[in-house]
């Protein structure tokens, strides 16, 4: 009998935001998959370890998911990740694949999930608290109200048109383009706030566009509310 793959959202960083279901499945699964080559270096491992100190007693499978847009490198990494996971499933072991936030929102896990599904294995996605909900809560503000729309935008691409949309804009995954994102927000007269490493020990809060650190790390999320001065 083959094992089952669980894509488990572990939330944005605060170990107390792990759901009861996520923690239960992590405890039940004999094998844990982490996105990285060395488990101790992965953010996902560090988060779960705080909530579940016995995590090291598990068997681990490393899944290297490089930060690149190169289609060839992505294809190679996804194929290798699928093989690493399917080998464990073929041995009859269930796998808990840890992924930050929620597995359905811009997660690298979903690419492996799709391939595993296509191969006929049993799978289940377990929701986690999304980073933008956690950031809004940390800012002590609502995200959207009444008929306001919510737009979730990958900020590593062009964002000018998206910023003209009504309602609340969530800018995710700005990465190395944070300086350009900040400049665009200022040029368009947008009012926004950002949290870097939400829920983690080195969390930083920026309550205006001017305050945003252009060298902020990968786990930075900007929330822009309402229109802009050019509307």
List keywords for this structure.
Methyltransferase, Cobalt-precorrin-4 Transmethylase, Domain 2; 231 residues; globular; 5-stranded parallel β-sheet; 5-stranded mixed β-sheet; 10 strands; 2 domains; Cobalt-precorrin-4 Transmethylase, domain 1; 7 helices; alpha/beta
Task: Report what the structure shows.
30% of the residues lie in helices and 21% in strands. It has 231 residues and is an alpha/beta fold. The chain has two domains: 4-126, Cobalt-precorrin-4 Transmethylase, domain 1, CATH 3.40.1010.10; 131-224, Tetrapyrrole methylase, C-terminal domain (Methyltransferase, Cobalt-precorrin-4 Transmethylase, Domain 2). The protein has a five-stranded parallel beta sheet with strand order 3-2-4-1-5, sandwiched between helices. It has a five-stranded mixed beta sheet with strand order 6-7-10-8-9, with helices on one face. A hairpin with a 7-residue loop joins β8 (192-196) and β9. α3 packs across α4 (109-118). The longest helix is centred in the middle third of the chain and has 20 residues, at 71-90. The chain is globular.
Give a short summary of the structure.
This protein is of the alpha/beta class and 231 residues long. The protein has seven helices and ten strands.
């Amino acid at each position: 009998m083959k094992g089952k793959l669980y894509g488990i959202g572990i939330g944005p960083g605060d170990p107390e935001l792990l759901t009861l279901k996520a923690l239960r499945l992590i405890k039940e699964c004999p094998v844990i998959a982490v996105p990285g080559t060395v488990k101790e270096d992965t953010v996902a491992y560090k988060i779960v370890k705080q909530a579940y100190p016995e995590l090291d007693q598990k068997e681990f499978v490393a899944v290297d998911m490089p930060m690149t847009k190169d289609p060839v490198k992505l294809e190679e990494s996804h194929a290798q990740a699928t093989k690493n996971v399917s080998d464990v499933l073929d041995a009859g072991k269930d796998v808990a694949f840890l992924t930050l936030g929620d597995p359905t929102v811009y997660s690298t896990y979903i690419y492996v999930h799709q391939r595993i599904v296509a191969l006929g294995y049993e799978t289940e996605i377990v929701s986690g608290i999304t980073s933008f909900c956690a950031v809004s809560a940390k800012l002590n503000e609502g995200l959207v109200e009444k008929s306001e729309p919510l737009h979730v935008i990958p900020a590593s691409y062009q964002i000018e048109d998206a910023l003209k949309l009504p309602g609340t804009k969530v800018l995710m995954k700005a990465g190395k383009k944070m300086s350009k994102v900040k400049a665009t927000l200022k040029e368009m007269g947008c009012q926004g706030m950002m949290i870097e490493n939400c829920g983690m020990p080195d969390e930083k809060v920026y309550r205006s566009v001017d305050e945003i650190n252009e060298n902020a790390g990968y786990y930075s999320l900007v929330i822009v509310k309402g229109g802009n001065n050019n509307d």
